[in-house]
Amino acid sequence: MSGRFLVFDGVDGAGKGTQIALLRAVLEGRGHVVHVTCEPSDWPIGAMIRRYLRHELTEGVPGWQAMALLFAADRMQHNEHEIVPRLSRGEIVICDRYDWSSLAYQSAMRGEDVAEMDRALEWIAVINGQARRPDLTLVLDLDPELAAARRAARGGEEELLERLDLQRRVRAQYAKIPGLRPHDRHVTIDASRSPEEVHADVLAALDAR
Length: 209
Hints:
- The chain is an alpha/beta fold.
- It has a single domain, classed as Rossmann fold, CATH 3.40.50.
- It contains nine helices and five strands.
- It has a five-stranded parallel sheet with strand order 2-3-1-4-5, with helices on both faces.
- It is globular.
- 36% of the residues are buried.
């Protein structure tokens, strides 16, 4: 029996971690085996990406193209060694970020020129073309200013991709992805509300499918 592959995506601070924990509890309560994972993954390429994002590696910081290729390589390793094996055992896999993050973030890193960002969006879609498609992608949509306030409240140093100007472009790029990936099953959820209200929408989206 094949499992189900669910992805949560959105700008930093949108509440993905909270929603994943709430959904996991519900699904396990229904008797499902649930595995939670994330991208960048815990595999070797993902571990290196995380070091760049946390400013731990300062020599040769990748530009947008190199970063997009690193994320794509991490994704394929993640699929091969973790996601697909667990799905084949009938588990529900919930992933915190997947290729929609690459599409939105790495294209936004291209710069402020909209045409250049859109060309980058198309190229990033191509290099991720072999990645397994999720059964459902849940995009938590949130105003970048509110997301920044949430990140500040939880503390910690700002990561490489959390600059407010970049996050604004990222949100705009997310809105373009459904047109680029029309066959992806997805739902966009207003993440500005309480965790309980967002969770109710998440459950409704899953039960509807």
